[in-house]
Design a protein that fits this description.
Elements (H helix, E strand, L loop, with lengths): L4 E5 L2 H4 L23 H4 L5 H8 L15 H15 L3 E5 L2 H4 L10 H16 L3 E5 L7 H7 L6 H17 L5 E3 L6 H4 L1 H5 L11 H25 L4 E8 L2 E3 L4 H24 L6 H7 L8 H9 L4 E6 L3 E3 L7 E2 L6 E2 L15 H15 L3 E6 L15 H19 L4 E7 L19 E3 L11 E3 L1 H15 L2
Parallel strand pairs: 1-2, 1-12, 2-3, 3-4, 4-5, 5-7, 6-8, 7-11, 11-12
Antiparallel strand pairs: 9-10, 13-14
Length: 476
């Protein structure tokens, strides 16, 4: 059995900043809103009006993803911190608009390419494996406004141009590839996942959502095809957000709802990317919601022939399935859920369930029989800087409990490739567009309005994780 690689993860849109040195993307248009009950939802249901406001140079709002954690300026220091931490692997993403400012420019930006040259070579010099997310939510705004982004099949070709640059420039450096982050987010959060702009107060059209997702499925398969034909050394993964559903009661109706929730919300995308075909249960779903994808024979062939090498998922909390709508609700990653009376929750209402991580790993391996990677996991909390230090025993306890469950899954025979702590360096939260919700073991001195020194400070959890990784290496 291969050893678990211990790592950390960030995304370009939440970490890099450097807005002046790239084109504008969909994440750059999400404004910060003072925390309210619906702030997380409001910041990912963007209308044309909100987009136009974001493009104005004299806009009234602060757009946190344009500054991120100022990784563009601090990358060298940050990679040194990751090296000292002892990480085996680091998951990061490419900013599409740093390579192609409009998304489909005739030539790539040499400055953008050189920026990632430095990043990748520095990681290799530190002995850290590279797990590259090729597209983490952010879509070039120009492509969305020009032809609808992922709603248009042209997007596949534009994405493949980016993939070709990645393979030809860094194919000998990258160890793991992920074409799309949390691909099922296209269903729950269409603006984030597939770049769909909301039509006023009208709900998103199912036809638009699933056609956009289909184009991403084909783009993922064709990316794997291209990578294999070019002989790149890295392995290819697929990723979904997992929610570990429990039935609210022993009522047959609640347990049937659990199966349906898992199928549509959690497994649907991975069934296609790992097994190579649309699952049987989507046919009645598409019929009910009047979805007609008109899938071509070529699409069917490429999806079947180029499936992923490993299965990865994000996991933060578990969820409850119920046919009753009267149950108390609580927040979660991408979707709300019924509150579980047996679990504690974070300040943001996300229920903390370490056993759910083990359960999810077992279910994923049962279903796909491919190596498993925990692409994201961690605790978002409001850390406090006192006398130059950050004491976060709650995060250490969170790690301890989740690592224990993951090791138990491995002991039961699940081939766990890696665990990646999300937001290993504090980043802007993708859900609530704020800095207050921190995941990192490295503190970034900045507030929700982008004010602060952006100085990096090691938290207590940094030293704990550093020691834990060292102990795992000693035990090999």
């Amino acid at each position: 059995m291969t050893k678990i690689l211990w790592g950390g993860a960030t995304s370009a849109s939440q970490y890099e900043g450097g807005y002046e040195n790239r084109g504008i993307d969909t994440q750059d248009c999400r404004p910060y809103s003072p925390k309210t009950e619906d702030a997380t939802v409001a910041t990912r249901l963007l209308t044309e009006e909100v987009i136009q406001e974001a493009k104005r140079k004299d806009g009234r709002h602060y757009y946190p993803f344009r500054k991120g954690s100022m990784g563009y300026e601090h990358w060298e220091e940050d990679i040194a911190l990751l090296g000292d931490l002892g990480l085996d692997v680091y998951r990061l993403s490419i900013s599409w608009t740093r390579i192609f400012p409009k998304g489909n420019d005739e030539f790539p930006s040499e400055a953008g390419l050189q920026y990632y040259d430095r990043i990748f070579h520095s990681l290799k010099n530190q002995g850290i494996k590279i797990f590259l997310t090729m597209n983490h939510y952010a879509v070039p705004l120009h492509l969305v406004e020009s032809y609808g982004g992922w709603l248009n099949r042209q997007m596949i070709d534009d994405y493949l141009r980016l993939a070709e640059i990645i393979f030809e420039r860094w194919g000998d450096l990258i160890d793991y590839y992920l074409p799309f982050n949390e691909i099922n987010a296209g269903y729950f959060s269409p603006y984030n996942g597939v770049g769909l702009i909301k039509n006023g107060t009208n709900p998103y059209a199912y036809q638009d959502i699933f056609l956009s997702l289909h184009h991403q499925f084909v783009a993922s398969a064709k990316t794997i095809q291209m990578g294999r034909e070019k002989g790149v050394k890295g392995k290819f993964g697929a990723m979904i957000s997992c929610f570990c559903y429990y039935a609210h009661t022993s009522r047959p109706e609640d347990n049937l709802r659990l199966v349906e929730d898992e199928q549509i919300n959690q497994w649907f995308c991975m069934d296609i990317l790992s097994r190579g075909e649309y699952p049987y249960y989507m046919e009645p779903f598409f019929k009910k919601h009047r979805v007609d994808l008109n899938i071509s024979e070529e699409d069917t062939k490429v999806l079947r022939a180029y499936t992923c090498d490993f299965v990865s998922f994000s996991y933060y909390s578990s969820s409850i399935s119920s046919v009753s709508e009267s149950n108390q609700q609580t927040a979660g990653n991408l979707v709300a859920t019924t509150k579980n009376q047996y679990l504690e929750a974070s300040e943001w209402g996300w229920q903390i369930d370490p056993i759910g991580l083990k359960t999810t790993a077992l279910k994923a391996y049962d279903r796909y029989q491919k190596p498993i990677m925990i692409a994201e996991n961690g605790l978002g909390a409001k850390d406090t800087l006192v006398d130059g230090q950050v004491h976060d025993p709650y995060r250490i306890e969170y790690f301890k409990r989740h690592f224990e469950q993951l090791k138990e899954a491995e002991a039961m025979g699940v081939p766990v490739l890696a665990y990646l702590a999300w937001g290993i360096i504090d980043i802007v939260s993708a859900g609530s567009c704020e800095m207050d919700k921190r995941y990192g073991v490295v503190y970034v001195d900045a507030d929700n309005q982008g004010k602060g020194s952006y100085r990096r400070i090691k938290k207590d959890s940094y030293y704990w994780y550093q020691q834990y990784i060292a102990m795992q290496k000693e035990g090999e």
